[in-house]
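Self-study notes.
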Amino acid sequence: MKWQIWKNFWGGGELLLTSMRAYEATEEDAFLYHLKEFDKKQVSGFIVKCCQRTEHLKRLFDILMEFSQEYHFYVIEIPEDLHFWGIIKHILLQLYDIETAKLKYFKMTHDNLSNILLNVIDSRESMERIFFLISTMLGNPVGLYNADGTCFFPSNSETQDFRMEKNITEYKPEIITRYQYLCQKRKNTNYIEYIKKLNIFERQEMYFVVSEQNEPLRELDFIALENIIITLQFSLIRHVIEENLEKRYIRDLEYRLLNGSLSNDEENEVAGMHGLNDAEIYRVVTFRMDAKKNMEKFTNAQIKETEMVENEIIRYLPRKHIFLQTNQIIYIHRETEQENGLEFRKKLEKLQQTIQEFLVNRGVEKDFLIGIGKTVTGYHELKESFKSSKIALKYIKIIRRMIGDESKSVIDSTKIGFFYHVIEKMKDINQLQAFIPESLNKLRQYDIQKNGELVDTLECYLNVNQSLKKTSELMFIHYRTASYRLQKIIEITNIDFNNAAEVLGVRNGLIAIRVLEVM
């Protein structure tokens, strides 16, 4: 049937290029019949790759050689590592004028690339085959790079990381084209690179790079690039969609492991997928960005910002157990003997500063916050660590006020003692109110009636070790105003600031007040 279809396209004089592998399942008689039909069609000859590895193919090649001698048509044998595209370009330019050759070559490259797109189901396999085909078409190494210069899809193992040089220029080939390229010559190299920037969903910048290491690009190569670039754009979109679907599925499983919505057996299965061990020690770290001004959550802008931060975090922490979930980024940390808890917290504090500077430099007005969960043994307890990391973030503003440090952005849930106990255990409003001394309740009522700031002043005064000078500086009020307020506080509450037990009760009451404000 295939023979009947193929022969309808031939009008005589064709040169057939083959590796003979298409005839692997063809009997000798059938193959000889095909050769006779080729002769009737006045096929000019064969160009055959020297790769007949089976005895059957070797026998068919012998039949081809015998037939060519008897019927006087050419057979040219070429090495296996020599690709057909260079031969095709040479023949087209010998047989046709340049415009006809460009038109025919455009169709040939389009058909070959489309064949992969339409017939290879797996997107990664499709990309790998497309890149191999592209490199053979162009006769040079090619690669696809991200904005950091890391190669995602190389055409061969020798493809190096990519960087933009200062001497880069714009280049437009001498054909009618939809595309312009960037052109550069790297230091310590003698070849030119052609670069085409590809933008995937306005979120991901990629660079397709052709390195003129073997031979210069000519008109037919840029004709091929017309098809190559649009094929790459389509393939990348398909690959990103498939990759994102897979990521979402994996992230959903990881998140369900952390939020405790899986059965024990399901937890075992998900942990096995992600290489988690029931005997190792873990901590869950939750990263979040909080708007400095009131802004809507879950917007496209916020999603892009969170994805951008995720990519930055991956540069400093292991990629394997980092995943984005709506407006937060979660990291499952495996503890080791080489790094204690203090060292790990210091590492995260340095990371917080780095990411915060990254956001500021890009004009993103967000606070980058980190909540560190408690230490647990085994993946079945990860839910407890995740829960504590979220509590640390949920009440971070209160914690800042209680410790007198508004810049505090990394909170270790194991270091907030009584405060964590209050938050985790006291979910009932009445239970929390029981922590508030009567004297402090009187002060709250006074503030409500007079629209005052006595509770805030008391909190600041205790945070700075009962220093009126520091209280006035931090609250941006005159020293006499701070002194007047303190006298008013003592008048209303009768607090004895020299009584450590009484002061502790007041501080605990302040914690309870701040928790009530966000419940």
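Second protein, same conventions, sequence then structure:
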Amino acid sequence: MAVSEIPRTLLPGTETRKLLLKWLVALLVPILVFTYVWVGEQMVNNVLLGMLYPDISYLDHDPSSLIFQSLFLLLLYGSVIALAGYLVAADSGRRSILEVWLDVVFAAVVPLILLATTANLLISIGLAVVIWALYMFVRNQVRKSMHYTPPAPLDSLHVIDDKESGARLRLAQQAGLWFGIIFAVITLVADLIFYATDQLAPLLMIWVVARTILLPLAGYFLGRLGGQLALRYAVKPDAGVEVAQVEEKQRGRQGWRANARKVSREQQLQSLSAGRAKEEARDVVPNDKPLQSRGAARVYLILLMAFVILYPVLDPILFGSGTKGRITSYGDLGFYVILALGLNIVVGFAGLLDLGYVAFFVIGTYAWSMVGSPQFYKLTGIIARPELFSWFFWPMIIIAALLTALWGVLLGAPTLRLRGDYLAIVTLGFGEIIPIVFTQMDKYTNGTDGIAGVYPPATPCIGSFCVNWITSPTPYYYLILILIGACIFANVRLRDSRMGRAWIAIREDEIAASSSGINLVNTKLFAFAAGAFFAGIAGVYHAAKLGTVAPGDFNSTDSIIYLAMVVIGGLGSIPGVLVGAVVVYAINLLILNQLDTYASDPTNFLHFLPQLIHNFTFSNVRNLLFGIILIVIMIFRPEGLIPSARRRRELHHTKNEDEEAEPSALDQPPGTPEFEAEMRVE
């Protein structure tokens, strides 16, 4: 009996064991790698030792730090156990065990090993993306050579009644329970070995015993929680959609609901095209790829948010020394993310190719630099006290963004009649002109010398606690997180608004959009203004964080980098743009920049190149390597790393999808019996 036949009867013992084996091994391997290969066990022990031994100086005894570390560990291990229950309950059982294990190895185990070896988050992410892309390419080639045809996405779709809901919930409980038992036994054996070799403090044995008892109990309840999450995406017997009847004369006075009929969710899904069916099947339980479903994505999002928010506390434990430099670089990454989100509005939503986006970033940067620095005295003759003018940073975020949006309208107005290559050339000219203009305005911008002494933000003190904006990068880290969150919220609201739909209509077909009543002038200008608005926010943050502004910080190639973030991530996709910004920043500004450092190390495998080629340096071929990476990604992933659903359908349209669709009345010649029967011609 197949796993997909679970609604008729409970799973037989063999199928249940296979399903549990598939997901328990798939999740236990990465969690064990984190615990014993990386720093998971060390984090747990340091938290407990910090609480139990307050006299040991090298341990962290800060109560807030210990609480945050404990919270992260509870969320991490608890989420993995709940995920085990979810995956078992949501799995259709049609994917082989080997395929699932390989996916988990390259998606989770390899990045963890890279994190443990490189001790750098962004470099590990960049390398992991490259390795994942190579794995996907090899897997696709193997499938082609074997003439593999994936099963139809909705073949396993069925209505889940109360009987099957109970069966899947019990499977989820079993998965969580067995995960807790196996993990408890493995950790117990490991800790006994550590204790026997004097590597474990005697007081920690109390925790070992308590953990061995609590893990199976937590597994049972968390597995059930994961099963309940999976059943939320199942098609229930009473789930349906109301649709209007065709006959107009039956409507009456009560509107379309008076003659609406109920169509089951199953019938609605079965009527979708192949592309839409594949998208919908990803979230409906049971499905073939539960790791990529919406329920699993919620678990990932919880972990990601916890990791990002608690990162300044976790960094010294996860990556050792150099925390200040890493947090500083992540603050720099943050304004790249905001710039990519703003450019995504112009290019991704509205389809306006803008190659001069750096101009708006320059305007936003100088807006705060000219106000929040000693340069303000040169402009106005008013002495600016730093402790007072630092407070103006907060209103200047909005003021500078609005000013930059105005410039977006002014620069966008001459380009309204242009499209495609012509628009790109004109915006590229703007990107070249604006930095030069600021360079020549000696009286206002200090010319080529730039502006130094830009004030940091100011925040009120709470008791004796004051935020250190001068020497600590942590406040800027949390500030950029807040700004990114606000920009993402604004992007989502704009995308789903009437203006966002108008942008998409212009991107798809400008003539059709104009014929539909969309005001092309206002819509395009608003797209330029919205994109420039986000660039202004990024510019103000950049000036305050850096403390100085120089004309050499900006050039036209920066616009190309911002555009690469949007295209590689996925045009029009907000999650894709976030990932694209991280990947491009990691590859271009971290990995390629440090290749010479790696090559100078005699123990590194890259050391042979300088020895083999005289005067060879990676800095000379950095742009070449970056260009090759961009070309490879665009060839094998033209829609981007995380594309929007619309763009995915455009680039992966099924060849025979139109031919397999049911013929409608418009497919029949007028006047034929089939046409009259379909159209009910009287």
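Instructor comment on the second fold: Residues 1-10, 241-260, 654-669, 673-682 have pLDDT under 50 and may be disordered.
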